[in-house]
Every structure is written in C-alpha cells, then in structure tokens.
C-alpha cells in the first residue's frame, strides 16, 4: 500500500505547499540541531559508526520498553539526521556496515527527505523551477525504500511511520493519509508524535480543514495523552484558526487565536515539531510589525528567534527583526540581523544591505561592498526564477 503514495503530483504541490513568512515546513537547514542528544553529533563527525548505531538502537529499544517517550526518540533521530553538512556517503557507509540496523535505515531516509526539501527550496510550488521539484523527487525516491525497509526492523517503528506520514501528506489523498496513520497506531497505539503529525496533515494548507482538526482533537481525548500533549494539539487548532484568519485578511481576528496557541505551548516548546513554536511566534510578531506596533513586534520576534530550531523561514525572522530595529533607530542591531538573514540567503536583507553600504546609511560608505550584496541577491533571484524577492514589510 505504502509505495503507491509517493510519486509526487506537481498540481497537488502547487495547491497545498504555500510557504511564506506565515507558513512552514518542519524540516530544513537553518541551524545545527541542539538539545539533550546533541552529543550524538560528535559520533557522526568522527564517523564512529559502531557507537552511533549502538546508542540510537538502544534508544529505540528503550522506547519500546516504555523507558523513554516518542518525543525523546524523535529528537534523537532528528539530531543525527538534521544537519546538511554530512554527505550522502556517510549514511550509505553506515547502512553498508549495518544493513539490518533500524537506526541506520531511518536516519538515511530522514537525510534524503531533508535533502529533498532543501533542493526544493522555500518558495511556493508555483514559483519553484521544475528542476528543483525533480531534485526533490529524486531524493524522496531514495528516502521511501529506507523507511519501508525499516518497518520490518523494529517492534514499534514509530519514527518510520512518522516520516512516511510526513511524505504522504504532500501527495496522498485524505483517505490514504488516514490509512497510513491508523497503520502507524497499530504499531504504536500510544504515540503522541504520530498524532501530532496527523494533526498537521489535517491542516487546510495540506488539504484538510479546521473542522477535521477539531474532530481529531476530540478523537484524541481519552487515548492516554498527557495534559501537556493535549495542550499542544489544542494549540495547533488555535494556530490553524489564526492562520485562516490571516489568509482571510483579518489579522486582528488572528492575533488572539495565535496568542492562545502561544500561551498553551509556553514552557512546553519541546513537545512541538522543530520550528513550530517559531512559526506561531513569528506570525504574532509579523502582525504587530504590519500594524507598526514596533516594540511589541520586537518582543515577539525575539521570542520567535529564540525558538527557531529548524524552519524554512528563519531568514525572514531575522530580516523582519532587522526592519524593526531600523524603525526603532537601533542601527547596529539592524545591521547584525540583516547580515544574519543575508547569510541565510534572504534577498530582502541582501538588497537592504546593498542599499545601506552603497549610500552609506548608518555605516561608512562602501560601494564595492554594496555592489557585492546586490549581486548576491540577484544571483539568488535568478537561481529561483520565476520567484521574486519580497520585502518582509513596509517601513
């Protein structure tokens, strides 16, 4: 059943993948993973395959024995797969050395999935060249066999189902997504991360609806989830309500809904998908930016950037905060944020720095440096044609 899900339809992608400052995908390469399992990265960097394989598979065994939860397990796997600086050959060698290893298969699949999303980029599907879509598809075609093979390598392959559901959400029908989710629950009936992922699958931007999400929230009651976990799912429903209000050009209606979501997950951000807290906080900040509530916007951007983790739009957060700093005449801080955003490939920040240095605004005039920033922006815009650079807001 699973193999039928994963040939991508560009019309479907064009309809449902709508990434901007107010939408997100959980997987990209904004920063190296950090957290309680960050020590695993040293094993990756030193190519200590035996110890890495042992530790990850021990965590899988601990999860199956009920000694750790699936949030911890997902974080551990994500820590190993969640950096783009490790070449494909590393993961291939790991699988060759340990062909029956659950950890090796899953991590290589997650690496390919991540590389596919990086190859696609963060623009809307309609603004993304077919060549980039084809590169994404090629990586996804490599990821799926690893995830499928891993299903037979563990008693509770919850991370495999988590990743397969992530991929299927981009192409499969709602019935197929539900069938895959139910199949995952048979393997891991008490899973929170699968329910969290399925709640994401039910979002309007992926072909679901607010009503679908609300019904599923009710379905999750009485399944053994903790109050904190239920709060996360409720926060996702509030976020969806806010997102819909934004899409309907009703930002003031969105603000209290997004604020309710932020209140529910405050102090429990680790239970969210990577980058999800920054997404909500960034939406609140952006609404305040648009209304020129600059001090309030700055507070929310600071919170969002503090929760970045990994998200497609992190460069927009820095660019927007740079804009706020400029409005508040905090020019040194603005320059630092623009430079951070520029290093992440944000064309608005690159163009803004080009202007600042060309005309000597707040800095000594340096036309050569200004030209360099402009040239970098043009190169990125040409590479992603027909996409056009959009400023994060108006001064």
From TrEMBL:
Domain of life assignment: Bacteria
Key words, A-Z: Signal
InterPro entries given in the database record: Sel1-like, TPR-like_helical_dom_sf, TPR_rpt
Signal peptide positions (record): 1-26
Protein name per Swiss-Prot or TrEMBL: DUF4034 domain-containing protein
